[in-house]
Amino acid sequence: MVPPANILFLLLLPVAAAQMTPGSCSGCGPLSLPLLAGLVAADAIVSLLIVVVVFVCARLRSRPPQEDDKIYINMPGRG
């Protein structure tokens, strides 16, 4: 559920956007192609890094405990 403060923010966002005049910020034009390509590449690298970290953590967690040198006769999978 969204907290009440966030709901108020979401409701007031269109009002604030309507108050802005076009061209009120300097340098807010379209991004250059090299900058856009760099941002897309950085986003892909960060996303890939997150996937790798989650995969490694999940793999480490699912690893069975270390085997000991004991022989378990009546325990399938342990001897």
Description:
With 79 residues, the protein is an all-alpha fold. The protein has a domain at 35-63. It has helices at 4-19, 33-62. The relative contact order is 0.05. Belongs to the DAP10 family. It is found in: Membrane. Its main location: membrane. This is Hematopoietic cell signal transducer. Keywords: Disulfide bond, Glycoprotein, Membrane, Phosphoprotein, Signal, Transmembrane, Transmembrane helix.
Features:
single chain, Hematopoietic cell signal transducer, transmembrane helix, 79 residues, phosphatidylinositol 3-kinase binding, phosphoprotein, transmembrane, mainly alpha
In short:
The protein has 79 residues and is mainly alpha-helical. 58% of the residues lie in helices and 0% in strands.
Helix-strand layout with pairing:
Blueprint: H1 4-19, H2 33-62
InterPro entries: HCST
Protein name: Hematopoietic cell signal transducer
Keywords: Disulfide bond, Glycoprotein, Membrane, Phosphoprotein, Signal, Transmembrane, Transmembrane helix
Instruction: Supply the helix-strand structural class.
Output: mainly alpha
Rg is 27 Å
H/E series: HH
Quaternary organisation: single chain
Number of helices: 2
Model regions low in confidence, pLDDT < 50 over at least 5 residues: none
Q: Give the overall shape.
A: elongated
In this structure, how is the largest beta sheet organized?
A: none
Strand content: under 5%
Helix content: 55-70%
Return the average pLDDT rounded to an integer: 75
